[in-house]
Amino acid sequence: MTFRTLTLIAASTAILCGCATGEVDYQGEGEGFIGAGSPVSARLETPSVGTAGQDAADDPAIWSSATPVRIGGVSTPGFVAGTDKKAGLYIYGLDGAVLQFLPEGLLNNVDIAEGLTVNGRSQVVLGASDRTPGKTGVALYLFDPTSDAGVRHWGAITTDVVEPYGFCFARRGSELHAILVGHEGEFRQFILTVDAAGRPVTREARRFDIGTISEGCTADEATNALYIAEENVGVWRYDLDPAAGAARSQVQPIEDGVLVADAEGLTIIEDGAARYLIASSQGDSGFPVWRVDGARPAYVGRFIVVEGAVDRVTGTDGLDARGGRVGDAFPEGLVVVQDDINDSGTQNFKYIDWRDIRSALGL
Ligand SMILES: [Ca+2]
Ligand SMILES: [Ca+2]
Ligand SMILES: [Ca+2]
Asked: For 223-259, how does the pLDDT look when each residue is reduced to its tens digit (9 = 90+)?
């Protein structure tokens, strides 16, 4: 048992004893309170990020391949990129093992897109919001599935955003868009292309102010939707078309039992003809889910991640999901979430089988 664990137990006990009516009051990030929800367990977890005393895991992104690729001499049917916001970017295997670490600085959110041709080859592109002083913007990386060179630095999108925070890619027809959300709610949408020399070129297509502190974002290309989490307000749906400006509709306000501040990560998962939006409700360690392929988002329930093969998930931050086959271990999809309190070290990422979530929610 660590000093940190003892401190947390003491804090939790103090909270319980302080409630005359017996209810447990959530006292902020780190106390480990889990609200109501259908329980699932993670199948496996990554090692803790960083070094002792540095709780810094933030946001994951999943990529998978029908044919295995090689990274660092290891054959893998895909990888999970995960940020350590104090140090850089980890590349994990689908078994959770570290395949590569890029000491790239203060990377906060990460996302992955396919279908970009660079130097005549189709490559995978990774983007990460970069808060490193002097480099603020979006750091860009390439992964060539035919090479064993791993994930390599490619370039950057420079911006006027003081503190880059949230980040996601979106496909819009043949275009690849990069969406940056600043800490103060600044919204920037870029169209990313490649020049003849194989370098990234970006053009800003839209900017507006979301309002207050915001971070999580995810796009649903099929419905031309862009979802953004305004941390203390709720989840919004914007149109992915830059011409739509700042027009938006609310998917979910901050509400006890559904979405408790901070509203953090957002992701979409495809499951056959259905598509679901999953949010991370950091304030009560839950994951509300909406079906989003209809005319408007329909709330279908919430799951929580309890102890099983690995420890439970609390105070969750970023998350990502990928439907369909993600290696042999996740034949119908994988959801990866950040865990604020890992039982054996600093923060890490937990891997959840989509089938477990689907069955827990009765989808
Ligand atoms: Ca975050
Ligand atoms: Ca945990
Ligand atoms: Ca653990």
From this structure: 999 999 999 999 999 999 999 999 999 999 999 999 9
For the chain, the structural domain boundaries read 1-31, 33-361
Residue 10: C-alpha distances to residues 6, 304, 341 (Å): 6, 23, 15
Other residues' Cβ atoms within 10 Å of the Cβ of residue 175: 11
Largest CA-CA distance found in the chain, in angstroms, rounded? 69
User: What's the gap in Å between 17 CA and the centre of ligand 1?
Assistant: 31
pLDDT at 29 over 80: no
295-332: string of b/e by CB count within 10 Å (b at 16+)? eebeeebbbbbbeeebbbbbbbbbbbbbbbbbbeebee
Q: Which residues surround ligand 2, an ion (CB under 5 A)?
A: 311, 339, 341
pLDDT in tens, 157-197: 999 999 999 999 999 999 999 999 999 999 999 999 999 99
What is the reported pLDDT for 47? 95
Phi-psi region at 95: left, alpha or beta (left = phi > 0; alpha = psi -120 to 50)? alpha
Write out the two tokens for 59: 């946001």
C-alpha 92 – ligand 2 centre gap (Å): 18
Q: Is the dihedral of CA 313, 317, 323, 327 positive or negative?
A: negative
Ligand 2 centroid from CA 17, angstroms: 23
**How far lies 269's CA from each of 38, 166, 239, 266, 292, in Å?**
18, 19, 18, 10, 10
User: What does the alpha-carbon distance between residue 83 and residue 89 come to, in Å, rounded to a whole number?
Assistant: 5
CATH 2.60.120.200 fits 33-361, yes or no: no
Question: Ligand 2 mean position to 348 CA, how many Å?
Answer: 8
Q: Which residues make Cβ contacts (< 8 Å) with residue 318, sequence separation at least 6?
A: 58, 59, 60, 83, 109, 216, 264, 265, 280, 337, 338
Using an 8 Å Cβ cutoff, are 258 and 297 in contact? no
The model's pTM is 0.91
